[in-house]
Design brief:
This protein has 650 residues and is an all-alpha fold. 69% of the residues lie in helices and 1% in strands. Among the domains are: 198-426, no CATH class; 580-650, no CATH class. This is C4-dicarboxylate ABC transporter.
Length: 650
Amino acid sequence: MAASQDPKLAGVEAQSLRTDVIPDPDQPPDRGGLWGHVATALAVFAGLLHLYTGLFGVFSASVQRAAHWGLLAALVFFIYPARRQRKTGVTVFDLVLVAGVAVATIYLLANWQNRLLRVFMPSPQELVMGTMMIVITLEAARRTAGWFLSLTALIFLVYAQLGPYLPGILRHRGYSLSRVVSFLYSTTEGIFGTPIGISATFIILFILFGAFLNESGGGKFFIDLAYAVAGRFRGGAAKTSVISSALMGTISGSPIANAVTTGTFTIPLMRRNGYPNHVACAVEAAASTGGMIMPPVMGAAAFIMAEYLRVTYTDVAIAAAIPAVLYFVAVFLMVDFEAQRRGIVSLPSESLPDVRKTLRQGGHLLIPLAALIYFLLDRWSPMKAVVWSTLILVAVSWLRRETRLDLPRVLRALDTGVRNAAPVATACAAAGIILGIVSMTGLGVTFSSSLLELSRGNLLLALVITMVASLILGMGLPATAVYLVLATLAAPALESMGVQPIAAHMFVFYFGIISTITPPVALTAYAAAGIGGANPARVGWSAFGLGIVGYIVPFMFVYSPSLLMVGTTWKILGSVVTALLGVYCIAASVTGYLKGRIGVVARTALFIAGLFLIRPGLVTDAVGIGLLALAWLIGDRFGPGQAVAGGPSR
């Protein structure tokens, strides 16, 4: 493939998929030396342990969670330096933290059966161990996700102490430091609460599955398949980015990991195809963000959502299917309109892989993915489904020499998968501190009642407030942490206003993810800009325009749950058809192109038409179709307008 000759494309497979952290090109993926080998051995052991529990059954909740966090926290201090700029290997400080993790974890495992008896009267040893574990969790969060998550957890710790001295809704009875430490360390409602429990059972196994699939060549196969299918159409490079990011989302579940892997190939190719640099980066950022809402994986938060809602993960994936399709259709249409507007043609046929040859070389890698989907739809537990799919993957990989998962590749997949899971586990542990304090102080009930009071019972206003809170939190917190906080604080208030539980939680989930392309702090857009060497702010605003449907659809499925597969078959089908037409209108509005360049009045009419059409209903559909017809007739009259994604119209 011609693209493979570009020097910018070299070495993509060696890049680390660090979940929810912007890749730092100055930081080596492995700190090397003796301790680098120790880290690898630790990661391989952790991977085998989790596969064993997935196949033969988990330990008790306390043991599973403590062992999981102990292993992955130790790994964090081996592979993430205290300072990003540091080039040296593992330091004495790192080893002290690893020793602290080991001691605190072993103490908890040795005394877990009596832990509930000690919550109100903790021993001095337990206070020391608990304090050590809290400090270790905060430091691990700082290293993997930056200061914001650690400071947020620290603020909540202080809030637990200062309750009696705070004004208004923030006031509570207050708790002693010993009570807080014991609660967070010794119960399953703090560090070792539901988030880390989901990480220890479901999340790490799905991340391992993705690592195995990628190690067998699945990532390359998905990209080649996208090239082969989409490259022969106009704007083929950008359409390849959209399709490959959607496919990669099925195995990575992280927008930044998506951008790092597919973007290294697609961004230079889009630039050669005629897209401006900032548009190429924005397309990759918007498409990669959508990968996290694409079933069947959907990132860590989806598993936690299933636990909160007391439904199966399959139910969550099914509910997310239509909004995910609408998002990707919107981005796909926008890059198509942009190609028409700029006169961008297809990729040269000689540079494209042959579809048949691509399927012949890697098509067997679709078997384990199909098996995973089948198992989930057949109501297997996610753990059982993903472990058996991983075993099927290992077996079918031997059908071709190029994809064969021999022992070195298996060990490498275990190492990579657990390293990718470490930041997710860290976010879950740090979020456990926040949720533990919320549970102790009753802040969740207070916040929900305050949201109801602030919105005065107006659902739309409550949704807007929740959206803003999600986007602000998403500027500094990983999407998983954003979902956990607002699922506890805001979702109950939305449910009390009549919103269906799945819609309330999916609303929070969407905006926690879409925050990664929301200016001024658009983490995925910045990652893509770093790959393409573009202006981050310009990429962020362009990605925001391309992903605009992601800001609209959540409001629509709150009011019309048929977009979440709730209702009769005919109602769902009707909603899908009109929503697709609405997405078409919004894509044309954002890019300023319909049957040709269109003016500002037509674009405004199209945007309003899109809103009406995405919202199911006979009246709204009729108004939307009428506005679409009006925009079609007006065309480019009343001025050319401004294209959000591509810059000024020419």
